[in-house]
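quick one before i forget lol
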Amino acid sequence: MNFLALIPARAWLTIAAVAAIAFFLWHDKKGWDLARSRKAQNVVLVEKLEQAESNARIAQETSNGYQQQLADLRKARADTPARVVRLCVGPDDVPPTAGGHRAARPGGLQEAPRRDPQVSRDIGPDLYDLADEADQCAAQRDALIDWALKVSGVHAGK
């Protein structure tokens, strides 16, 4: 015997209507969950975008500061002439005088003989170039430290 045939047609309509309402409610809830999920994802993406923009701004500020510091160093170098610096040699490096004695200067150092241009050449410009390279390395280090502190959220007390 077919039990489904015993259910009246009106009951079928009621069952179909309840099933349709239940389906639409379930589907609507799923849609709300999806919308909330997307909203949460959008919030995360917006936060990441704001952080990236902040990092780019910090990097640009740090780069500008570094470039300004390099320009200041170049200007200071151009305004300061290189001093003459001559090498001195120890007493063992100076040839004895005509009497066989080595003339000692205060501090145990003697002036390099003038007749040897390699020993007494002016090394001032080379020293200033080396100092300029050291200043540039220090400026780069300072800029990197400044950038790292700003990106990490720690504020340097300058």
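fyi The CA atoms of residues 73 and 132 lie 8 Å apart.
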